[in-house]
Amino acid sequence: MSLGAPLALLGLLAIPLLGWLYLRARRRRRALARAFVSAALEPSLAPSRPGWRAHVPFALLALAIAVLVAAAARPTRALSVPVRDGAVMLVNDVSASMAAADVRPSRLGAAVRADARFLAAVPRVVRVGLLEFNATPVLLQAPTRSRAPVRAALGTLRAGGHTDIGNAILAAVQQLTRLRGPHGRRVPGAAVLLSDGGSTGGIDPVAAARQAGMRRIPIYTVALGTAHGVIPVRRGRRVDEVPVPVAPAELEAIARASGGRSYTVGDAGTLQAVYAHLAVRLGDRSVRRPLTATFAGAGLLLLAAGAGSSLLWFGRLV
SS3 of 159, please? Predict the structure, then answer.
């Protein structure tokens, strides 16, 4: 729950003051009663005291004030509702390091399987596109509600080349900002970017992510791999194993800059679970429901209960 006008809660400071005035008034009434009635005659003139009932009206009144003050702070609650239209770009790194087999069958092979899992789980109303990148981003499939062309495009991914994440982000953002719904409004969009490390060239990916954030396109990044990944590199007649450890720092910064979330995954099973989670998450949208009327209604009911109990037991409003 969040508040639209949190400064209104300063009104709660009035409740301790009212409590002090209430206790002061009760002491004054007792003092006046003792001034006119001797202690010996008090039991016969007031044989029974209201006990706990004496404090119920004020307690209800104080609680009513607290709830009404909370209503003035304009409380809202976040709810997840299914999207009616949306788009997700799957942005896959296909640079040479994605051929590392520290994640079975390979980093790229695991990514393809996770993408397929995402396609199967995400609601049909969500359009899905596919973009691959190494040194250059390549759009393989524009966002569509049809899953078949995206699955077919997944089968074409091959590892090789360097890594340019920044231009891949801009290419994904360009595709997502073009999409329009039935009334001409832009379709809400997000990107799922999978890589095993940072850029080796191109523009600053964090700056590109900020541009995505300004357009309200969050980027969910997945860093795939372990610290022990290697790829074979031919050097003349010799083939060396070159270390390609996962490097999640830049991907985490991209997610923060765009308003998304980052994940670091070291095995195919966890990657599948992450993509299944993202399919559900991106199939919903968060909306805020105002609770002001609910709080105000509860406060008025408490106010009426306090006044009613005072009238019933003591013949006065308070």
Answer: coil
